[in-house]
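Why run this: before we spend reagent on co-expression, it is cheaper to look at a predicted model of the complex and decide which construct boundaries make sense. The entries below are exactly what would go into the expression plan.
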Amino acid sequence: MAKALPVSPLLVPIPEMPPVAGVRLATAAAGIRYQGRTDSTLIEFAPGTTVAGVFTRSLCPGAPIDWCRAALKNGKARALVVNAGNANVFTGRAGVEAVKATAAATAELLGCKPRDVFLASTGVIGEPLPYERLTAALPELLAGLSPDRWHDAARGIMTTDTFPKGARRTVMLGGTEVTIAGIAKGSGMIAPDMATMLCFVATDAKLPAPVLQAALKAAVDASFNRTTVDSDTSTSDTVLLFATGQAKHDRIAADAPGSAVRGFRAALTDLLLDLALQVVRDGEGAQKLVRIDVTGAVTAKSAHRIGMAIANSPLVKTAIAGEDANWGRIVMAVGKAGEPADRDTLSIGVGGTWMAREGGVVPGYDEGPVVAHMKGREIEIAVDIGLGKGKATVWTCDLTHGYIDINGAYRS
Amino acid sequence: MAKALPVSPLLVPIPEMPPVAGVRLATAAAGIRYQGRTDSTLIEFAPGTTVAGVFTRSLCPGAPIDWCRAALKNGKARALVVNAGNANVFTGRAGVEAVKATAAATAELLGCKPRDVFLASTGVIGEPLPYERLTAALPELLAGLSPDRWHDAARGIMTTDTFPKGARRTVMLGGTEVTIAGIAKGSGMIAPDMATMLCFVATDAKLPAPVLQAALKAAVDASFNRTTVDSDTSTSDTVLLFATGQAKHDRIAADAPGSAVRGFRAALTDLLLDLALQVVRDGEGAQKLVRIDVTGAVTAKSAHRIGMAIANSPLVKTAIAGEDANWGRIVMAVGKAGEPADRDTLSIGVGGTWMAREGGVVPGYDEGPVVAHMKGREIEIAVDIGLGKGKATVWTCDLTHGYIDINGAYRS
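The model came back. Tokens follow.
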């Protein structure tokens, strides 16, 4: 079923992931769908842990998303249970039963409320989750909990990711150094699985849930929401941030302004962007990581939309796969974004060379450096709209035969 | 440069195209980019011909689009000049000069005003159009004009289309039978060309320009705007409708309501849908034509948007290429459309078999007939949202290795 995929040429090695105070992790092979690998992950958080979450905008989300959204209202968490191999999406009443039973069993073992247990599932859609296998693995998971198992957890949540993804930052908060650590999965896929992006982050900072939620929302907007692989949105996309409160820093009030945690927010954004780019680097069939800098738009939001129109254009992405600096297709993508743009003030550059400027080809434009740049693994596209001061950067990958191979395969 | 592409397996033969009173056509090989084929087309219309047009929504359109939009204000036409091989897009002042010079030269030969000459170009972007070659070919084009050359014209406007596209309808109007005939090109592409959709339609009906424009707008909304190959929008998309007024039917006033030309509008819509589906059948790398019927949405507009979200989803399109009835990906696409939808009222069927209904797999669902249907050339997907009475049908093609081959090729 899970045909072994070649490891992405854009791989970055997972960094050292030392413990985060108040966090213990474990994985087990529950045999939910995959054989011979871990597929179930338990992360336990110290009492008093607060939580924030951002979820898919899909109007047809999976049962675990519904569960997490409801649980989030309490703002407290003691555990996260993740399974790979079955997304528990479009499973009707059985899906609801599965999340209730899993949360109840975990809560009983940990001595907490079911509402303190967060859940995420990734894998095949439309098949009932054999949750008894998951709950049967809980004692083993509990026994295996250790602060040192971040790498195991990063592997346990993978579906057809070709490498495990993790990142870690430290930052000063209220006079003390705190740690933020996270893992992510996506955007590999096995037919008929859905590419789902899951990201779980923990910090030893002590932050009230509203402060945490505001920080997470802003950080996701500036990271995951600036990346795309193929414009499709999973029914299960999830980013959860847990704050164990073990660090001994000055108290942060629930109504503290964003500026009170500016450094923390910046570090969190940086960490999420790191993880988001790891996901793009492992995009289905990706051979090149593409950065698109849009400047001169009428607003930052307009720049973001123009950037995403370029990043999601199949014609732009196939041209990049072909190592062709086809700026005509970039003009096309700008034109279809629906945002203010003017052909005659538009400039387009690749790898630091401006190719087209103010409505025409740059006179005497030398294709040499551009051709060389396009052969690399990391491609930089610059688009200046020439109308205002709005700017945004987004990232994508190229569209290759590998994408068709992975996503056009028969289910088997 | 133009690597010969295999003819689409979804080809439909071009029908017989007898003359339309008041229309003469000619083609020539002007050597604009291609060698050994016709690349320039002149269509001459009788004095008194009215015209309507619908153009790309791109905010970075080509110079011929600007020209046509301005010329359309007069509502009159005597000629159409089309070249293949160069799109005259992103060519700055040179592009404006090219359209002015071509229109002036044509007008002088025909004894009309430049504003009566309509222009369309398709091909490479960002290279100045060598319009002298086009104007040099005008005398040959003029000499070659004949009412019998519709097939030649259908071939002359092709870029990497793998078959010529035409359609013809007759309909009663004001007590007389009138003819509507049209040709189209798209959506093949050669690197670095842009897939451009061009469609030119002529009728012998005598219709004031406002009536014609309203009819064309409605017909395009119900045909071309319901189809997609890859979600990208060309800078040159053009549909022009010319009415020569040679048919001797009852007079239609300029302020006649749509109902006065109901039959004509229906025939026009049917013809444009025929041409639009021919374009999808010739989509880059297309192996399957896909029809998506959305019912039960809150409004028709909502149904249309949901249909287009499915039709543009790379994950749905690659699954179809793999002959995999992956309804999980259809759920995903419905969920990301941003339109009202409810997982628990959603039903999905393929080839007449409902696979998923009301939030779960249909009990005892037999995959056999669905698997057989997916192996065919024409795929039917039905999605019932279960919320209202809005419905819409859209068409697309699958996403295959052929698409990557065609669009990822180096420029050379």
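Chain B touches chain A through 73 residues (CB under 8 Å). Residues 262-281 of chain B form the longest helix (20 residues). Bring this page to Monday's planning discussion.
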